[in-house]
Amino acid sequence: MTEIRGKRPAAVLPLAVAGLVLSLFPIVYLHVASVGELSPISHTISDYIFVANGSGLLAVTALSLAAASVALLAVLVRRGLPRRGPATVLMGLWAAGLTVAAVFPTDPTGTPTSFSGAVHRYAGAVMFASLPLAGWLISRRFISSTSVRRFSVAAGITSVAFMVSHVTLTYQGAVLLGLFERVLFALLYGLLFALAAAVARREARS
């Protein structure tokens, strides 16, 4: 396993963690504020743009999460992760997918797919596939972390389930899109926090 070496990125790692925490506040607020208006089982997180102040708050979550991911990636690169390696590219695709999905909003449920809606959907597919793969590669080749590996595997499986739920899975007549997406996001957050913790532990030992 490759050792991650480099200058101590003392200021960048806390910024990455702060960005992850900041990104949680708007989306948690939207879940609470939209009770009775949107279903967490059948509506996707993207549907929060249709509630009051939802568009701006969702953009804050997506862009903060993207910025935090880039900061975390910068820490990993400074510690030896190859700049042009597959894990770096995949984490970059995750952050880019978040940004594109924020710029191109989804369509209202039941309406024809617009250009913006199509871009949003493909950006989501890219980002949901990219981060679990990136985490798995990093845990296998650069940071020996059981928690990172487990979150990566669980997120990868849930990502596949989320994609399948677009077509086939229902529960009492309600499509399970929202449920699978929320579980997936929880796992992806867990993966990012686990990566940050693994880097912090290595920093403490170096």
UniProtKB/TrEMBL annotation:
InterPro entries, per database record: DUF998
One Pfam family of this chain: DUF998
Keyword Secreted listed: no
Keywords assigned by UniProt, alphabetized: Membrane, Transmembrane, Transmembrane helix
Membrane-spanning ranges: 12-32, 52-77, 89-106, 118-139, 151-171, 183-200
Protein's UniProt name: DUF998 domain-containing protein
Gene source species: Saccharothrix tamanrassetensis
